[in-house]
Design brief:
Layout lengths: L9 E9 L3 H11 L18 E4 L7 H5 L8 E2 L7 E3 L2 H10 L2 H10 L4 E3 L4 E4 L4 H14 L4 E2 L4 E5 L9 E4 L4 E9 L14 H8 L5 E6 L3 E3 L12 E10 L4 H4 L8 E9 L3 E3 L1 H15 L4 E6 L11 H4 L20 H12 L6 H5 L5 H10 L13 H12 L1 E2 L2 E4 L7 E5 L18 E3 L6 E3 L4 H23 L1
Parallel strand pairs: 1-2, 1-10, 2-7, 10-20
Antiparallel strand pairs: 3-6, 4-21, 5-6, 8-9, 9-10, 11-19, 12-15, 12-18, 13-14, 13-16, 14-15, 16-17
Helix pairs in contact: 1-5, 1-14, 3-14
Length: about 475
Amino acid sequence: MSIAVEDRRERRCDVLVVGAGAAGLFAALAARGALDPDAGEGLPTGHAPDVVLLNNEARLGLKILVSGGGRCNLTNVQVDEKDYESDAPRAVKGLLRGFPAAAVRTFFRARGCPTYTEPMGKVFPQSDSAADVLGTLLGAVEAAGIPLIAPAEVTRLDPPILAGERWLVRLGDGSQWQPQCVVIATGGKSLPKTGSRGFGLQELERLGHRITAPLPALTPLLLRRDGPLAGLSGLTVPAVLTLAPRGMKPEQLAGTRFRSLARAAGGLLVTHKGATGPAPFDVSGACGRAQLAGEDVVLYADFWSLVVDDGPWLPYRDRDKQPGAALTPLLVPRPPTREAFEHQIRGLFEQRERILGTVLATRLPRSLVEALLHAARIDSNYKVKQLDDRDRARLYLALTQVDLGLAGTEGYTKAEVTSGGVPLGELDRRTLESKLLPGLYCCGEVVNVTGRLGGFNFQWAWSSGYAAGIAVAKARLES
């Protein structure tokens, strides 16, 4: 989709939105006053600003189309600031309130794209088609009369020299735009095949902003080939993953005072290279950041806490298909203490004449049991009664604190988002306008806000795009 505009080498508009992904499309709609009045704070009465959208790729909405396996997990039923990593959680909280998840569902439903909810709150279009999500957004843009020009690769942003002057936005074909305000919605570096190459991050740094180092997040993990999960490719199992500094004692990891570098609880799929799925995705950003900083860290897996009868995973434990998201942060359990583990396993170990591997396989996949016991140097053919205290101590660690042998992440190629970006502390916490460069607004993935798996990053795109769009519109109407 490309809406023609007058062919001039220097073009003018009130608002230029650079990037037509989820955040950019919503920013343009908000700036134009095209969002439902009951979906959030409306524009002041008056003439809607002249808004133009630029996209570097000829094909539009590629990240939307590939998200959620082509289904597009467009938000979550319950969203709050605890679902995000950021330098300013309180600012995230306020921005999410401006255009909450309920408003997102209202927006799509009102335009003929109803939604449904999966377990753990993931929201999808009823058609299970990401193309319908993109079509709804592009249809709204066209109905609002917003020119969308693609391909249009921006190469440089130059701020006004004097008050009252316009921005100068240069394109690769030699043409220029002169807007009063610019909204940067260029995304990060994740899934570069969709057009995310980090241009906005580079420009913001060149213009004087401090950029939190961008890193791939929500990406598969790489594990050592000699790790405990080697040879189990294809296995799916729930797990609690904990990233911690090397050298932590078992009682410290299980203690209430210990704050992990990252922790997530959910499904884990073993791959030929390592592990993927909700739990690995949710810790992947922290894993990459720790390794980039040269920190000596260990990724521990607790395969026990989500299979106990009174655990937080009980509602999902016996489902044929495991939920495609991890537990909310408040529900993620710590590894049990040795005492708690002995209490939890007591019922199974009352079967003293039974084979250890067989007993444990009533709760965990047999292949995983064999691999974990082998790594812990415990004979799976022992009878339960043959285990001495040393064996039981090793069993405790094998099931609740096993070192997975973290080797890295698969990087941007498979990452769903980019962590890092321009700190919220350098932007107005309500409008997302740059504190350094008046008239420059940022939204979406270019900002240092990263959500966990489950629709939270799309929600940030909608909420931040809305905030920037409404703010820039008000700024233009009041000038």
